Amino acid sequence: xxxxxxxxxxxxxxxxxxxxxxxxxxxxxxxxxxxxxxxxxxxxxxxxxxxxxxxxxxxxxxxxxxxxxxxxxxxxxxxxxxxxxxxxxxxxxxxxxxxxxxxxxxxxxxxxxxxxxxxxxxxxxxxxxxxxxxxxxxxxxxxxxxxxxxxxxxxxxxxxxxxxxxxxxxx
Length: 171
Known about the structure:
Layout lengths: L1 H7 L8 H8 L10 H17 L4 H26 L9 H10 L10 H17 L12 H26 L6
Helix pairs in contact: 2-4, 3-5, 3-6, 4-5, 4-7, 5-7, 6-7
């Protein structure tokens, strides 16, 4: 199975151990209490700085590219740390946050919408209902990242439905 993963992201094998582990833990955020929440919060700041107001096409391309890079880095970090999806790896939450705020009905969310999206994402990421838990069954970095992206997409659906009923969600 490792050789199949190596073909999906051959560049990841060349990553230095220190870089892969530092990047996957977001340079120490993963060592704080409630690391997933800190990784998600960093993702919200990243979303607000770079993704908010971006056109849908570019938004999707950048989100998928960030997820692809994160899968490779998380795969390397898992191998170096010799653990499967350890809590200290928070790059998976970080890269999933833009999927939570996909501009489905509107291009921007209000501060309330961002707060609601963050809360929904943490709820679905922690509880892993529906099919989200099964996404962790994928090998390596894909399993590390896929459940978070699934939680973000479910959060996105809920957030956009809430936005239809509560206009305060959208900017």
